[in-house]
Amino acid sequence: MSERAKPPNAGKGRQKGVPNKATADVRAAVALIAQGRAKDVNRWLTQCANGIRDRSKGAKPGAYVVKPDPGRAAQIYFGAIEYHIPKLSRTELSTGSDTLRIEIVDPTRRDPAA
Predict the structure, then answer these.
(1) Element at 66 (helix H, strand E)
(2) Among positive and negative, which fits the CA dihedral 40, 42, 43, 47?
């Protein structure tokens, strides 16, 4: 049985780790919305965390239209930034010895000697 020939454009696609255009566009759109609505989002999160008092006529003193819920405000915040800041993956390492050397490589920093 002969080996199948590869198509002429095989391997010419996107490089590994490069987001596709749709993902990049969505991230850019979310960033623009976040920048343009930052003051509003901050106010909404503060209102969610601190609550909104009922100021209507006849309302009981200390009554809320929206009850304070700081946990929910944090949940909303982290849920929103999830689409702007990528999640880090978790990795478990086992070496079979008692020592483990971890080297952190920061692609934004370059060795001046290089």
Answers:
(1) strand 64-66
(2) positive
Q: Which residue matches tokens 């990795």? A: 91
Dihedral sign computed on CA atoms, order 10, 12, 15, 21: negative
Closest CA to 83 of 50, 49, 34: 34
The predicted model scores a pTM of: 0.49
Q: Quick one: which of 72, 78, 69, 76 has its CA closest to 50?
A: 69
| Residue pLDDT tens, the chain, 114 long | 557 888 887 777 777 777 788 878 887 887 787 788 888 988 999 999 999 999 998 989 889 999 999 999 999 988 887 766 766 666 776 667 777 777 777 766 666 665
C-alpha distances (whole Å) from 97 to each of 94, 101, 102, 104 are 8, 11, 14, 20
